[in-house]
Amino acid sequence: MDAHDPVARLDGISLQYGKVTALDALTLTLPAGCMVGLIGPDGVGKSSLLSLVAGARRLQQGQLQVLGGDMRSAGHRRRVCPRIAFMPQGLGKNLYPTLSVAENLEFFGRLFNQDRQERQTRISDLLASTGMSRFIDRPAGKLSGGMKQKLGLCCALIHDPDLLILDEPTTGVDPLSRSQFWDLIRRIRASRPQMSVLIASAYMDEAQNFDWLIAMDAGKVLATGTPQQILERTESSSLEQAFVALLPEEKRSQHQQLVIPPRGEHSGIAIEAHDLTRRFGDFVAVDRVNFRIERGEIFGFLGSNGCGKSTTMKMLTGLLPFSEGEASVLGKPVDPNDMGVRMRVGYMSQAFSLYSELTVRQNLALHAKLYHLPADQGPQRIIELLDQFNLHEVADSLPMALPLGVRQRLSLAVAVIHKPEILILDEPTSGVDPVARDMFWALLVKLSREDGVTIFISTHFMNEAERCDRMSLMHAGKVLVSGAPQALRQQRGKATLEEAFIDWLREASGPDDNASEEVAPTAPTTSASAPAKVPRFSLRRLLSYTRRETMELRRDPVRGLLALVGTVFLMLIMGYGINMDVENLTFAVLDRDQTTYSQNYALELSGSRYFIEKPPLYSHAELDQRMRAGDISLALEIPPGFGRDLLRGDAPQVAYWVDGAMPMRADTLRGYAQGIHLNYLLTLAAHQPTTYTTSLVNVETRYRYNPDVKSLPAMVPAVIPILLMMIPAMLTALAVVREKELGSITNFYVTPVSKLEFLLGKQLPYVALGFVNLLALLLLAVFVFAVPIKGSLPTLLLGGLLYLICATGLGLLVSSLLKSQIAAIFGTAIATLIPTIQFSGMLHPVSAMEGAGAFIGQLYPTTHFLIITRGVFSKALDFAELQGYFLPLLLAVPVLTLASVLGLSKQEK
Amino acid sequence: MTRALGNILQLGIKELRSLARDPALVVLIIYAFSLSIYSSATAMPETPHRATIAVVDEDRSQVSARLIDAFQLPYFLPPTRIDHRQMDRGMDSGLYTFTLNIPPDFQRDLLAGNQPGIQLNVDATQVSQAFSGAGYIQQIIQSETAAFAQGYQGSATQPVEAVVRIAYNPNLDASWFGAITEVINQITLLSIILTGAALIREREHGTIEHLLVMPVTPLEIMLAKVWAMGLVVLVASGFALRFIVEGWLQVPIQGSMALFLAGTALHLFATTSMGIFLGTVARSMPQLGLLIMLVLIPLQILSGAVTPRESMPVPVQLIMSLAPTTHFVELAQSVLLRGAGLGIVWPKLLALIAIGAVFFYAALRRLRSTLQ
């Protein structure tokens, strides 16, 4: 490829989400080998554009050429994706929180087919250059926001991409980390000048340093050019101004220069903290923090990521109890149960925490009602907020379909809906575009100055910090300095507040954290920039997913433990609990004769080991009543004159009433009743030898395989297949859908891993776990239940292995098809519980079934494995006799896998 | 107080809206309460039903032919005539559940009154059929031989006769029981999953934390989930009973539907609380999935809906008397199949209230402590 060819060429690209147009016939050429910045208000299609270029989202209309090929072609995407790296929006969105820093990097390295040595060189290089070598073993979930972003960048850079796509990489990252981040990018570009970088950013001071900018609005391009050209064209002195100037008239008119009127008289204390401390184990997150915020004051909270700002705010809202110290809000000590205070405080958390299943309007309406706005004011207040926060257009959209900035506006609208006296806002403007931020600040100023609302706000934007009345700088759980922004800057003798802060932070953290002086990553020895071939199938990529899934399983030992202990527990329950020997049946006698003859007859019944006698009956009504209540399941009615008729040889008739509600029991009861009657006749015949016939034939019944007809030996081989379907399927069922719900599925979209590798890679660890499970159940069967394995153990194990592949395959299928975890759990329960327990021959042979149940039963893997376990356990069979039942299992494996592959999409729709 | 009720109402409506946003879940719920009930009710065979039987006939007489002809559908598939060698192989491979061996000179011995033996082999691994099927076969043999002998020797009546009358389900149609059991199973399954998963989802998405800074108490959060999810399941079960069980499956419902639904509501109170409890114990959705399985299987299998409760070991019976399903199964069977009224089932309702209250309290305590 010629270095001067554009890296991407867009021609008439349009993208629709339902009725919303995200991109509108966009035609654009992105130059190669430089930093291209995308700027524009929230929700103008920047993220959509980036994910299209990265290949993560399916193209709808138009032509898109990236790195010299058509992105519609799956073959081209597969070939170029090793040359593209994509870092999605959101802190640590592409990371796996339970995996350590090194493990995350290892995972990505494997996905790009790097061998061990190459991986290790690259990982140590990248970590050294980002100053993260010290945190190599820390789980990604426990890193601060800035470090997460750095790790995300390392993961994206591990394969030396030719095109690096970053979607708001520094949103929510503190100034120090931000400057380190850009230093890193600069150094990487210095060593790999051919790399193109495409970035969306909300920070105009960052955009200033890009080579080429694209200003977007409403799915269209407003202007392109170097920052200088854009400044000249708009006759602005700063990009922030240029940004506003570029907006269409109606949006520009909403923007006004922010003026903050001076604060009036002090009127008491709103929030006060005294030696506030919070420990998590040994870690001191907040260390004796003191501050006092006056009513009506705007108080800023600054500091690096993970320094304890959010923890402090959470303690003040009562979400987290504090370890030591005191705090009061509105003159009262913090009490998490005080509803009165909650009504007067508004809080906005760092992460989006509104309901993603409710539309913008529904979210507002819900909160209006929860805060008990009077019914006549609620709707009006909602309209007011939709106006103020510019949310009218998206009022009926779901939050997750909205860009981060718009979601933040919604969160803020919710936080002020009840006109609180205190607002505690945790980075409310992260990811919000400059115009919206100014509008938002105008509102805060109005609230503070006109309504006397106290505002406690944390931010990473220095221009916002300068707008605060007073502020505190936090680091490592401690407050470093507090005061008015102006005074703080002067105190340090710096030109800008940002410089002053970086100075303070560097001083506080010592030379250790000063990572930016580290070396740039060395140029790769093996040139990955010209990847000649991307194999269609790679075992290493497959195993990469296997390793990751295994690690996640190991980090969550409860899950593995539940699976193992759970199956053993269930086997005990089912082995002892399912009892086909119908015993202890309740009966009562309605004896209308009350002679020794009738009593003799009744004795036959009460003497039986199957029955328990209940108090006698006196009437039909009572019989009816007690049978309805389930008190008795059998009633014997002996007619008046029974003894007399018997003596006369008039053949009196006794009646048995059987409760038919439970047919299986009723059937057995009927059999017992007939047997007892027969027995009576035999006794009678023995006492009075007459010509009466009793039984002409002697039926010798032999119960094969289980001579005592005990349920246990019959149940144990049947329970094993059932448990090995339900538990492994449930374990696997969330494997894919969870990534979909939590966002890490993007890695699958943009890395060269194929659908088959992804699915099989995820399946393997669960098959292995299932196999351990099988062994545990076999040991339990033999040693605890004393049910011996009479046939061939290897046959059983081989069948078990195949069966486990089917069971996990079924779970994966559910997981690939569905979108939410709840649906996956319910779906798996439906797909396994009924077919295994009812249709697979555990209780009734499949040959006896009819209709849909019989059809499912014949196809379902459990049916076949059940025959194998029963054959091996009870009938002493080996492979030769059971081979016919392996075939359906062998067929089910590719069918299930193919269905999952078809159900899964390699791009977001 | 009205504030609290308002909150509970609004939060519950939110739950319903969330549910409606997940069309796949809605489809699954509809399936669970319609086709799933239908197919599992109709698949349940009468015992024995279409049982496989093979006969080794070494007599080849009139009476042996008569015996073979007596095994009829729907109880038995037409018997296969085989020889001795095929008998073992056929039983080993599960081809026949029963084999009957009629010895040579059977007819002669029978008519001579020698009480000839006849061998019946039963595949005891097929538990449910082994028992009742063997009983059936013995009965058939006795009555057919008796009738045959009668034809030769003239009748001989028995000194006492017995009639067996089956109440409530005279033909012992297994689908009646199967349908009701399936409705009960789906009620328990769905209510536990919906509430448990709804709680975990709130935690995984951070919305629960958001709720806690608002003037809303854990009690309100929990009650909202209980009523909303309970309502969904209640409506679904009412629908299933009316249109699937009564309409499609033609099961005559004996008792009062209102009484059953009242019992269902109480049962749901207990199971939704159980769902919340599991939601507080599990740390993530994958853990919850497993926990639910571990709880559901014993609840379903040991409740008396699969095998008779009185035949279970006494400790199991005692433990299971603390489970809501046990009482609900008894209540449902009494009301729907035996037509029992409030006067009969009130102790079950009380038991459900008591169990529900305990579960609710336990879940609320855990919810409170995990949220702080």
From TrEMBL, chain A:
Q: Where in the cell is it found?
A: Membrane
Q: Where is the ABC transporter domain?
A: 8-243, 271-501
In terms of superkingdom, the source organism counts as Bacteria
Q: Which UniProt keywords apply?
A: ATP-binding, Membrane, Nucleotide-binding, Transmembrane, Transmembrane helix
Region of interest (Disordered), ranges = 510-530
Keyword NAD part of the UniProt annotation: no
Which PANTHER family does the record match to this protein? ATP-BINDING CASSETTE, SUB-FAMILY H, MEMBER 1, RIBOSOME-ASSOCIATED ATPASE
What's the protein name?
Answer: Multidrug ABC transporter ATP-binding protein
Q: What is the lineage of its organism?
A: Bacteria, Pseudomonadati, Pseudomonadota, Gammaproteobacteria, Pseudomonadales
UniProtKB/TrEMBL annotation, chain B:
User: Subcellular localization, per the record?
Assistant: Cell membrane
A Pfam family assignment:
ABC2_membrane_3
Q: Gene Ontology terms, cellular component aspect?
A: plasma membrane
The portions of this protein that span the membrane are 24-41, 176-200, 221-245, 257-281, 288-306, 344-364
The record's principal subcellular location, in a coarse class, is membrane
Gene Ontology MF term list: ABC-type transporter activity
The annotated topology with respect to the bilayer is: Multi-pass membrane protein
Keywords assigned by UniProt? Cell membrane, Membrane, Transmembrane, Transmembrane helix, Transport
- The answer on whether this UniProt entry bears the keyword Magnesium reads no
Which family, according to the similarity comment? Belongs to the ABC-2 integral membrane protein family.
What protein name does the entry list? Answer: ABC transmembrane type-2 domain-containing protein
Species in which this protein is naturally found: Pseudomonas abyssi
**Organismal lineage:** Bacteria, Pseudomonadati, Pseudomonadota, Gammaproteobacteria, Pseudomonadales
